[in-house]
Amino acid sequence: MGVASYLEDDLTRFLEATQTLSVFGPPSPPRHHCPFCGKSFEDRRRLSQHLFSSHHGDRPVLLIAGREPDQTSTIRQRLHTDQFAIENCSAMRVRVNGVWQKDMALHAVALRLSQERDAVVELELVNRFDEVATPVYQSYRLMLRIPEKTSIDAVDHAFIEYLATGMPRMEQIAAFLQDSRCTGVVSDYADALGSYVRGLLVKDQAIGTGVTLRPAEADELYGAALEALKGFHRPLTSVICGLIRFAFNDFGFTDWPSGFRRLDRCNAIASRYTSCGRQRLCGWDQTRLLSSRCGSSAQHTRSEIGRPSTSTGWRDKGYGDEGTQAQRNGLGCCPSG
Question: What is the mean pLDDT of residues 144-172?
Fold first, then answer.
């Protein structure tokens, strides 16, 4: 036996003890195995296709009136059970005001949400799409602040009593918010009305109104008021939201009239000169366009509906002859949405 045969026999014995001998030739291409079911594939592309088609888990989703809410949301309007839907969910946990509830089906959760008026509801949704895969989780925190119609009407009347004056002051806003009619669940609605009036005063910077904030902070107050009030379908909130959007030069809501004819007419005219009504105009261009279409009084119209006047008072900004009948009756007598 030669040296070569001796070395070959040692190598053969080593391979036999450590691994299976393969046929001489080029190595076979590596296989890609599925971590869930163990199937193997020739390349990563086919493995990815297999994972997406056989082991793909969608995120569980809560839908309210056809839309997914933010992870933390405030609901200010009463909803019906058929407006709630949950998709891609195999299990859920529900906590109401910090107390975990017993196992609840979807219809039971929808019924509970439609009945609550002042509560914090937390949902933890789970989608166990595969026995060996990690489940997909999604959580929501819903703060339900749904006042009764009579409570909102009372706040509207308090708003007229305290703030429908020639030039309101900051202390009048504080007195309005401290009124007993503006406390409780309806306080969010009252705070939004107060933010709107604060925004007007901050923007105008009139002497004697008690304003200490800078004019640039008016937009933040306007935005907070608009975000809260746009969910209330009432004459007063429609007028205020229309005025705020007009102050933002946002003319894309002509399909939702405010009920104040002069404001709606100006919005309709200005929207023709913007792209889909969403392009904002500077104040000078806006005044020039309105003047060319509405006549010589357009500039006066814009200043009148954009801020309160010391001579005519707030009642003329939606409570006068150009308002709807509901507005003339106090803007609080129409059923809420």
Answer: 91
Give the start-to-end residue ranges of the domains of the chain. Answer: 61-145, 149-328
Instruction: Report whether pLDDT(27) > 80.
Output: no
β-bridge mates for residue 144, sequence order: 75, 119
Q: State residue 140 phi and psi, 5-degree precision.
A: -135, 145
| Closest listed residue to residue 317, CA positions, set 169, 156, 166, 158 | 166
Among the ranges given (200-204, 245-249, 327-331), the one the predictor scored with the smallest mean pLDDT: 327-331
Identify the CATH class of 61-145.
mainly beta
The pLDDT mean for the chain works out to: 76
For the chain, report the end-to-end CA distance as a whole number of angstroms.
Answer: 101
Task: Enter the DSSP assignment of 186.
Answer: G
For β-strands 91-96 and 118-127, DSSP reports them as antiparallel
d(CA 127, CA 140): 15
Say which amino acid occupies 82.
D
- Is residue 215 left, alpha or beta, with left meaning phi > 0 and alpha meaning psi from -120 to 50? alpha
- Residue 203 makes CB contacts below 8 A (sequence gap 6+) with 215, 218, 247, 307
pLDDT at residue 319 greater than cutoff 50 = no
Beta bridge partners of 140: 123
pTM of the model: 0.61
Residues 94 and 109: their CA atoms lie apart, in Å, by: 8
DSSP line for 11-32 = HHHHHHHHS----SSSPPPPPE
Give the separation between CA 6 and CA 43, rounded to whole angstroms.
Answer: 41
The pLDDT of 285-304, averaged and rounded, is 42
